Amino acid sequence: MKALAAIAAQTARLSWRSGGALVGVVFFLAVVTVVPFGVGPDLKLLGRIGPAMLWVAALLAALLNLDRLFRDDRDDGSLDLLVMSGVPLELTVLAKCAGAWLATGLPLTVVAPLLGMLLGLEPAALATTTATLAAGTPALILIGAIGAALTAALPRGGILVAVLVLPFTIPALIFGVSAAATAIVGPTPFLPPFLILLALTLFSLVIGPIAAAAALRATLE
Amino acid sequence: MQRGGRTLFRGLSFVLNPGEMIAVRGPNGAGKSTLLRIVAGLLQPTEGHIALAPKGEAEEGAIAHYVGHLDGLKTALSVHDNLNFWRSVWGSSASVPAALDAVGLGDLAALRAGVLSAGQRRRLALARLLMAPRPLWLLDEPTTALDDGGEALFAALLGRHLGEGGMALVATHGDLPVKVTTTLWLGGRP
Predict the structure, then answer these.
(1) Cross-strand partners of B23
(2) How close are the terminal C-alpha atoms of chain A, in Å?
(3) Where do the structural domains in chain A lie, given as residue ranges?
(4) Is the confidence metric ipTM above 0.90 for this complex?
(5) How far is A99 from chain B (nearest CA, A)?
(6) Mean pLDDT score of chain A, rounded to an integer?
(7) Domains in chain B and their CATH numbers?
(8) A192: closest CA of chain B, how far (Å)
(9) Which of A80, A87, A90 to mutate to test the interface with B (most CBs of B within 10 A)?
(10) What does the alpha-carbon distance between residue A105 and residue A139 come to, in Å, rounded to a whole number?
(11) What are A22-56's pLDDT values in tens digits?
(12) What is the pTM of this model?
Protein backbone atom coordinates (compact mmCIF):
# COMPACT_ATOMS: atom_id res chain seq x y z
CA MET A 1 0.00 0.00 0.00
CA LYS A 2 2.87 2.31 0.87
CA ALA A 3 4.53 1.34 -2.40
CA LEU A 4 1.41 2.28 -4.38
CA ALA A 5 1.12 5.61 -2.58
CA ALA A 6 4.78 6.32 -3.37
CA ILE A 7 4.27 5.52 -7.07
CA ALA A 8 1.15 7.69 -7.27
CA ALA A 9 2.84 10.59 -5.48
CA GLN A 10 5.93 10.39 -7.67
CA THR A 11 3.84 10.32 -10.85
CA ALA A 12 1.88 13.39 -9.75
CA ARG A 13 5.04 15.21 -8.69
CA LEU A 14 6.90 14.52 -11.90
CA SER A 15 3.88 15.59 -13.90
CA TRP A 16 3.83 18.95 -12.10
CA ARG A 17 7.61 19.37 -12.25
CA SER A 18 7.75 18.78 -15.99
CA GLY A 19 4.96 21.32 -16.50
CA GLY A 20 2.74 18.74 -18.19
CA ALA A 21 -0.04 19.12 -15.65
CA LEU A 22 -0.09 22.89 -16.01
CA VAL A 23 -0.23 22.65 -19.80
CA GLY A 24 -3.45 20.66 -19.47
CA VAL A 25 -5.10 23.32 -17.30
CA VAL A 26 -3.91 26.15 -19.56
CA PHE A 27 -5.21 24.31 -22.62
CA PHE A 28 -8.56 23.83 -20.86
CA LEU A 29 -8.66 27.52 -20.03
CA ALA A 30 -7.70 28.51 -23.58
CA VAL A 31 -10.45 26.45 -25.21
CA VAL A 32 -13.11 27.73 -22.84
CA THR A 33 -12.13 31.40 -23.18
CA VAL A 34 -11.94 31.24 -26.98
CA VAL A 35 -15.35 29.61 -27.50
CA PRO A 36 -17.43 32.70 -26.57
CA PHE A 37 -15.51 34.72 -29.17
CA GLY A 38 -16.27 32.14 -31.82
CA VAL A 39 -19.90 31.52 -30.89
CA GLY A 40 -20.77 35.11 -30.09
CA PRO A 41 -22.03 36.77 -26.94
CA ASP A 42 -25.35 34.94 -26.89
CA LEU A 43 -25.54 34.02 -23.19
CA LYS A 44 -28.46 31.66 -23.66
CA LEU A 45 -26.64 29.68 -26.34
CA LEU A 46 -23.40 29.63 -24.34
CA GLY A 47 -25.25 28.43 -21.26
CA ARG A 48 -26.78 25.61 -23.31
CA ILE A 49 -23.56 24.37 -24.93
CA GLY A 50 -21.42 25.16 -21.86
CA PRO A 51 -21.36 21.68 -20.26
CA ALA A 52 -20.52 20.06 -23.59
CA MET A 53 -17.73 22.58 -24.22
CA LEU A 54 -16.26 21.96 -20.76
CA TRP A 55 -16.39 18.22 -21.26
CA VAL A 56 -14.78 18.28 -24.71
CA ALA A 57 -12.05 20.62 -23.47
CA ALA A 58 -11.42 18.46 -20.38
CA LEU A 59 -11.28 15.30 -22.51
CA LEU A 60 -8.65 16.77 -24.85
CA ALA A 61 -6.67 18.33 -22.00
CA ALA A 62 -6.59 15.00 -20.13
CA LEU A 63 -5.39 13.11 -23.21
CA LEU A 64 -2.76 15.75 -23.97
CA ASN A 65 -0.54 14.64 -21.09
CA LEU A 66 -1.05 10.93 -21.13
CA ASP A 67 1.52 9.91 -23.71
CA ARG A 68 4.32 10.40 -21.17
CA LEU A 69 2.70 8.28 -18.47
CA PHE A 70 4.88 5.25 -19.22
CA ARG A 71 7.29 6.49 -21.89
CA ASP A 72 9.48 8.41 -19.44
CA ASP A 73 9.75 5.37 -17.19
CA ARG A 74 10.62 3.18 -20.13
CA ASP A 75 13.22 5.61 -21.47
CA ASP A 76 15.08 6.07 -18.19
CA GLY A 77 14.97 2.40 -17.18
CA SER A 78 12.67 2.71 -14.17
CA LEU A 79 10.01 0.62 -15.89
CA ASP A 80 12.28 -2.46 -15.64
CA LEU A 81 12.66 -1.83 -11.93
CA LEU A 82 8.94 -1.28 -11.43
CA VAL A 83 8.20 -4.57 -13.21
CA MET A 84 10.72 -6.32 -10.94
CA SER A 85 9.62 -4.57 -7.76
CA GLY A 86 7.39 -7.44 -6.61
CA VAL A 87 4.32 -5.18 -6.77
CA PRO A 88 1.87 -6.59 -9.35
CA LEU A 89 2.22 -4.53 -12.53
CA GLU A 90 -1.57 -4.01 -12.68
CA LEU A 91 -1.50 -2.28 -9.31
CA THR A 92 1.53 -0.24 -10.34
CA VAL A 93 -0.42 0.94 -13.40
CA LEU A 94 -3.40 1.75 -11.21
CA ALA A 95 -1.18 3.80 -8.88
CA LYS A 96 0.32 5.66 -11.83
CA CYS A 97 -3.20 6.40 -13.12
CA ALA A 98 -4.15 7.72 -9.68
CA GLY A 99 -1.09 9.98 -9.78
CA ALA A 100 -1.95 11.16 -13.28
CA TRP A 101 -5.49 11.93 -12.15
CA LEU A 102 -4.22 13.94 -9.19
CA ALA A 103 -2.00 15.93 -11.55
CA THR A 104 -4.47 16.46 -14.43
CA GLY A 105 -8.01 15.22 -13.72
CA LEU A 106 -8.33 16.84 -10.31
CA PRO A 107 -7.13 20.33 -11.40
CA LEU A 108 -9.48 20.18 -14.41
CA THR A 109 -12.40 19.33 -12.12
CA VAL A 110 -11.48 22.10 -9.71
CA VAL A 111 -11.22 24.85 -12.33
CA ALA A 112 -14.30 23.65 -14.27
CA PRO A 113 -16.84 25.60 -12.14
CA LEU A 114 -14.77 28.80 -12.51
CA LEU A 115 -14.60 28.41 -16.26
CA GLY A 116 -18.27 27.46 -16.31
CA MET A 117 -19.06 30.89 -14.91
CA LEU A 118 -17.19 32.42 -17.85
CA LEU A 119 -19.59 30.56 -20.10
CA GLY A 120 -22.58 31.86 -18.17
CA LEU A 121 -23.65 28.51 -16.72
CA GLU A 122 -26.34 28.55 -14.06
CA PRO A 123 -25.42 27.28 -10.57
CA ALA A 124 -27.29 24.00 -11.09
CA ALA A 125 -25.44 23.35 -14.34
CA LEU A 126 -22.13 24.24 -12.69
CA ALA A 127 -22.83 21.63 -10.03
CA THR A 128 -23.79 18.87 -12.46
CA THR A 129 -20.85 19.61 -14.77
CA THR A 130 -18.37 19.49 -11.91
CA ALA A 131 -19.89 16.30 -10.53
CA THR A 132 -19.77 14.56 -13.90
CA LEU A 133 -16.18 15.67 -14.49
CA ALA A 134 -15.17 14.37 -11.07
CA ALA A 135 -16.81 11.03 -11.88
CA GLY A 136 -15.73 10.88 -15.52
CA THR A 137 -12.11 12.09 -15.66
CA PRO A 138 -10.80 8.92 -13.92
CA ALA A 139 -12.37 6.91 -16.75
CA LEU A 140 -10.65 9.10 -19.36
CA ILE A 141 -7.25 8.57 -17.71
CA LEU A 142 -7.72 4.83 -17.17
CA ILE A 143 -8.73 4.32 -20.80
CA GLY A 144 -5.95 6.63 -21.93
CA ALA A 145 -3.43 4.58 -19.94
CA ILE A 146 -4.04 1.64 -22.29
CA GLY A 147 -3.06 3.80 -25.26
CA ALA A 148 -0.10 5.23 -23.36
CA ALA A 149 1.15 1.72 -22.54
CA LEU A 150 0.71 0.56 -26.15
CA THR A 151 2.69 3.50 -27.52
CA ALA A 152 5.33 3.61 -24.74
CA ALA A 153 7.91 2.05 -27.04
CA LEU A 154 7.25 4.36 -29.99
CA PRO A 155 9.54 7.36 -30.40
CA ARG A 156 6.79 9.83 -31.29
CA GLY A 157 3.61 8.31 -30.00
CA GLY A 158 2.18 11.51 -28.54
CA ILE A 159 -0.55 12.20 -31.04
CA LEU A 160 -1.11 8.48 -31.60
CA VAL A 161 -2.31 8.06 -28.02
CA ALA A 162 -5.05 10.65 -28.56
CA VAL A 163 -6.10 9.11 -31.89
CA LEU A 164 -6.12 5.57 -30.50
CA VAL A 165 -7.94 6.41 -27.31
CA LEU A 166 -10.45 9.04 -28.45
CA PRO A 167 -13.04 6.58 -29.84
CA PHE A 168 -13.08 4.65 -26.58
CA THR A 169 -13.67 7.76 -24.51
CA ILE A 170 -16.81 8.71 -26.47
CA PRO A 171 -19.23 6.72 -24.25
CA ALA A 172 -17.94 8.58 -21.19
CA LEU A 173 -18.30 11.86 -23.08
CA ILE A 174 -21.88 11.10 -24.15
CA PHE A 175 -23.12 10.13 -20.71
CA GLY A 176 -21.06 12.80 -18.97
CA VAL A 177 -22.51 15.56 -21.13
CA SER A 178 -26.05 14.22 -21.03
CA ALA A 179 -25.94 14.03 -17.21
CA ALA A 180 -24.42 17.51 -16.96
CA ALA A 181 -26.96 18.98 -19.39
CA THR A 182 -30.00 17.71 -17.47
CA ALA A 183 -29.72 20.84 -15.31
CA ILE A 184 -30.37 22.96 -18.41
CA VAL A 185 -32.64 21.08 -20.76
CA GLY A 186 -35.22 20.36 -18.13
CA PRO A 187 -37.35 17.49 -17.02
CA THR A 188 -35.00 14.57 -17.75
CA PRO A 189 -33.58 13.09 -14.54
CA PHE A 190 -29.88 13.50 -13.68
CA LEU A 191 -29.33 10.12 -12.10
CA PRO A 192 -29.64 7.55 -14.94
CA PRO A 193 -26.90 8.99 -17.22
CA PHE A 194 -24.76 9.78 -14.17
CA LEU A 195 -24.99 6.20 -12.94
CA ILE A 196 -24.01 4.92 -16.38
CA LEU A 197 -21.03 7.28 -16.29
CA LEU A 198 -20.05 5.84 -12.90
CA ALA A 199 -20.43 2.35 -14.34
CA LEU A 200 -18.11 3.30 -17.21
CA THR A 201 -15.54 4.57 -14.71
CA LEU A 202 -15.75 1.35 -12.68
CA PHE A 203 -15.50 -0.70 -15.87
CA SER A 204 -12.36 1.12 -16.98
CA LEU A 205 -10.99 0.81 -13.44
CA VAL A 206 -10.87 -2.94 -14.04
CA ILE A 207 -10.07 -3.10 -17.77
CA GLY A 208 -7.57 -0.21 -17.89
CA PRO A 209 -4.88 -1.51 -15.51
CA ILE A 210 -5.11 -5.09 -16.79
CA ALA A 211 -4.86 -4.09 -20.45
CA ALA A 212 -2.16 -1.48 -19.86
CA ALA A 213 -0.07 -3.92 -17.81
CA ALA A 214 -0.33 -6.52 -20.59
CA ALA A 215 0.74 -3.91 -23.15
CA LEU A 216 3.69 -2.83 -20.98
CA ARG A 217 4.88 -6.42 -20.58
CA ALA A 218 4.83 -6.71 -24.37
CA THR A 219 6.98 -3.57 -24.78
CA LEU A 220 9.72 -5.06 -22.57
CA GLU A 221 10.56 -7.60 -25.27
CA MET B 1 17.56 -17.69 -26.74
CA GLN B 2 16.58 -15.97 -29.96
CA ARG B 3 16.43 -12.23 -30.53
CA GLY B 4 15.19 -10.76 -33.80
CA GLY B 5 15.29 -14.18 -35.45
CA ARG B 6 18.95 -14.73 -34.51
CA THR B 7 19.99 -17.37 -32.05
CA LEU B 8 22.14 -15.72 -29.39
CA PHE B 9 23.03 -18.72 -27.30
CA ARG B 10 21.80 -22.24 -26.70
CA GLY B 11 22.54 -25.04 -24.31
CA LEU B 12 23.59 -22.57 -21.65
CA SER B 13 23.58 -23.92 -18.11
CA PHE B 14 25.00 -22.62 -14.87
CA VAL B 15 24.45 -22.76 -11.12
CA LEU B 16 25.00 -19.83 -8.81
CA ASN B 17 25.49 -20.61 -5.12
CA PRO B 18 25.39 -18.20 -2.17
CA GLY B 19 28.56 -16.16 -1.86
CA GLU B 20 29.47 -16.79 -5.48
CA MET B 21 29.76 -14.47 -8.42
CA ILE B 22 29.64 -15.27 -12.11
CA ALA B 23 31.15 -12.88 -14.62
CA VAL B 24 29.42 -12.97 -17.99
CA ARG B 25 31.85 -12.06 -20.75
CA GLY B 26 31.83 -12.02 -24.52
CA PRO B 27 31.94 -9.72 -27.52
CA ASN B 28 29.31 -7.01 -28.18
CA GLY B 29 26.01 -8.54 -29.20
CA ALA B 30 26.81 -11.94 -27.71
CA GLY B 31 23.76 -11.76 -25.45
CA LYS B 32 25.20 -10.73 -22.09
CA SER B 33 22.49 -8.17 -21.40
CA THR B 34 19.83 -10.49 -22.75
CA LEU B 35 20.95 -13.23 -20.36
CA LEU B 36 20.75 -10.83 -17.43
CA ARG B 37 17.29 -9.65 -18.45
CA ILE B 38 16.12 -13.28 -18.69
CA VAL B 39 17.36 -14.02 -15.17
CA ALA B 40 15.67 -10.79 -14.02
CA GLY B 41 12.39 -12.07 -15.43
CA LEU B 42 12.10 -9.17 -17.88
CA LEU B 43 12.46 -11.41 -20.94
CA GLN B 44 11.13 -14.89 -21.57
CA PRO B 45 13.71 -17.38 -22.84
CA THR B 46 12.83 -19.06 -26.15
CA GLU B 47 13.52 -22.39 -24.45
CA GLY B 48 14.63 -23.46 -21.02
CA HIS B 49 14.03 -22.09 -17.55
CA ILE B 50 15.50 -20.42 -14.52
CA ALA B 51 15.01 -22.17 -11.20
CA LEU B 52 15.23 -20.44 -7.87
CA ALA B 53 16.05 -22.49 -4.81
CA PRO B 54 14.59 -22.66 -2.28
CA LYS B 55 11.46 -22.63 -4.39
CA GLY B 56 8.48 -20.49 -3.55
CA GLU B 57 10.39 -18.37 -1.09
CA ALA B 58 9.95 -15.18 -3.01
CA GLU B 59 8.75 -13.99 -6.35
CA GLU B 60 11.34 -13.85 -9.06
CA GLY B 61 11.33 -10.08 -9.25
CA ALA B 62 11.63 -9.54 -5.56
CA ILE B 63 14.79 -11.58 -5.01
CA ALA B 64 16.96 -9.77 -7.52
CA HIS B 65 18.33 -6.27 -8.00
CA TYR B 66 18.96 -5.24 -11.59
CA VAL B 67 21.25 -2.43 -12.68
CA GLY B 68 21.11 -2.15 -16.46
CA HIS B 69 22.55 0.26 -19.00
CA LEU B 70 19.95 2.83 -18.02
CA ASP B 71 20.32 4.27 -14.57
CA GLY B 72 16.59 4.52 -13.84
CA LEU B 73 16.86 8.03 -12.42
CA LYS B 74 14.29 10.80 -12.46
CA THR B 75 16.28 13.86 -13.49
CA ALA B 76 13.66 16.27 -12.14
CA LEU B 77 13.91 14.90 -8.59
CA SER B 78 16.70 15.26 -6.05
CA VAL B 79 19.30 12.57 -5.41
CA HIS B 80 17.70 11.83 -2.04
CA ASP B 81 14.17 11.61 -3.48
CA ASN B 82 15.31 9.25 -6.21
CA LEU B 83 16.54 6.74 -3.65
CA ASN B 84 13.73 7.40 -1.21
CA PHE B 85 11.17 6.49 -3.88
CA TRP B 86 12.59 2.99 -4.26
CA ARG B 87 12.86 2.67 -0.50
CA SER B 88 9.09 3.24 -0.26
CA VAL B 89 8.28 1.00 -3.24
CA TRP B 90 10.31 -1.86 -1.79
CA GLY B 91 8.96 -1.25 1.71
CA SER B 92 12.48 -1.18 3.08
CA SER B 93 13.82 0.42 6.25
CA ALA B 94 17.32 1.06 4.88
CA SER B 95 18.74 4.51 5.44
CA VAL B 96 19.03 6.80 2.42
CA PRO B 97 21.93 8.94 3.76
CA ALA B 98 23.91 5.80 4.66
CA ALA B 99 23.51 4.42 1.14
CA LEU B 100 24.54 7.75 -0.38
CA ASP B 101 27.60 7.87 1.87
CA ALA B 102 28.52 4.34 0.81
CA VAL B 103 28.79 5.44 -2.83
CA GLY B 104 30.40 8.78 -2.05
CA LEU B 105 27.37 10.97 -2.86
CA GLY B 106 26.61 11.95 0.73
CA ASP B 107 27.14 15.67 0.10
CA LEU B 108 24.96 15.79 -3.00
CA ALA B 109 21.69 14.52 -1.48
CA ALA B 110 19.78 17.76 -2.13
CA LEU B 111 21.03 18.14 -5.70
CA ARG B 112 18.78 17.48 -8.66
CA ALA B 113 19.72 14.15 -10.28
CA GLY B 114 19.70 15.83 -13.70
CA VAL B 115 22.89 17.78 -12.98
CA LEU B 116 24.93 14.72 -11.96
CA SER B 117 27.78 13.52 -14.16
CA ALA B 118 27.60 10.11 -15.84
CA GLY B 119 29.80 8.56 -13.16
CA GLN B 120 27.75 10.08 -10.36
CA ARG B 121 24.54 8.78 -11.93
CA ARG B 122 26.07 5.32 -12.03
CA ARG B 123 27.00 5.64 -8.36
CA LEU B 124 23.43 6.62 -7.55
CA ALA B 125 22.14 3.61 -9.51
CA LEU B 126 24.48 1.40 -7.49
CA ALA B 127 23.29 3.00 -4.25
CA ARG B 128 19.87 1.56 -5.06
CA LEU B 129 21.34 -1.91 -4.46
CA LEU B 130 21.65 -0.95 -0.80
CA MET B 131 18.07 0.25 -0.42
CA ALA B 132 16.66 -3.25 0.05
CA PRO B 133 18.48 -6.48 0.90
CA ARG B 134 18.10 -8.91 -1.99
CA PRO B 135 20.19 -12.03 -2.44
CA LEU B 136 20.87 -11.74 -6.18
CA TRP B 137 22.47 -8.76 -7.90
CA LEU B 138 22.25 -8.61 -11.70
CA LEU B 139 24.70 -5.98 -12.89
CA ASP B 140 25.11 -5.03 -16.53
CA GLU B 141 28.55 -3.45 -17.00
CA PRO B 142 28.33 -1.78 -13.59
CA THR B 143 31.70 -0.02 -13.76
CA THR B 144 30.91 1.97 -16.91
CA ALA B 145 31.74 5.66 -16.36
CA LEU B 146 33.05 5.03 -12.85
CA ASP B 147 36.41 6.55 -11.88
CA ASP B 148 39.07 4.64 -9.90
CA GLY B 149 37.55 5.71 -6.59
CA GLY B 150 34.12 4.62 -7.81
CA GLU B 151 35.46 1.22 -8.84
CA ALA B 152 37.02 0.77 -5.42
CA LEU B 153 33.71 1.68 -3.74
CA PHE B 154 31.88 -0.73 -6.03
CA ALA B 155 34.37 -3.50 -5.26
CA ALA B 156 33.81 -2.93 -1.55
CA LEU B 157 30.01 -3.05 -1.94
CA LEU B 158 30.12 -6.20 -4.04
CA GLY B 159 32.66 -7.84 -1.74
CA ARG B 160 30.47 -7.19 1.28
CA HIS B 161 27.39 -8.48 -0.53
CA LEU B 162 29.17 -11.73 -1.47
CA GLY B 163 30.64 -12.03 2.00
CA GLU B 164 27.14 -11.95 3.47
CA GLY B 165 26.14 -14.90 1.29
CA GLY B 166 24.80 -12.85 -1.61
CA MET B 167 25.05 -13.80 -5.27
CA ALA B 168 25.98 -11.73 -8.28
CA LEU B 169 25.78 -12.16 -12.03
CA VAL B 170 27.84 -9.45 -13.67
CA ALA B 171 28.13 -8.74 -17.38
CA THR B 172 31.46 -7.12 -18.08
CA HIS B 173 34.19 -6.41 -20.61
CA GLY B 174 37.10 -5.62 -18.36
CA ASP B 175 38.49 -7.40 -15.35
CA LEU B 176 36.42 -6.95 -12.23
CA PRO B 177 37.97 -5.69 -9.02
CA VAL B 178 36.46 -8.65 -7.13
CA LYS B 179 37.29 -12.34 -7.03
CA VAL B 180 35.24 -14.05 -9.74
CA THR B 181 34.02 -17.57 -8.96
CA THR B 182 33.20 -18.56 -12.53
CA THR B 183 33.49 -16.83 -15.86
CA LEU B 184 30.78 -17.55 -18.39
CA TRP B 185 31.89 -16.91 -21.95
CA LEU B 186 29.18 -16.14 -24.47
CA GLY B 187 29.97 -16.30 -28.16
CA GLY B 188 33.27 -18.15 -27.68
CA ARG B 189 36.34 -17.40 -25.63
CA PRO B 190 38.82 -15.16 -27.46
Answers:
(1) B170, B183
(2) 28
(3) 2-220
(4) no
(5) 14
(6) 89
(7) 2-72+118-125+132-185 (3.40.50.300)
(8) 40
(9) A80
(10) 10
(11) 888 898 889 888 888 888 888 888 888 888 999 99
(12) 0.89
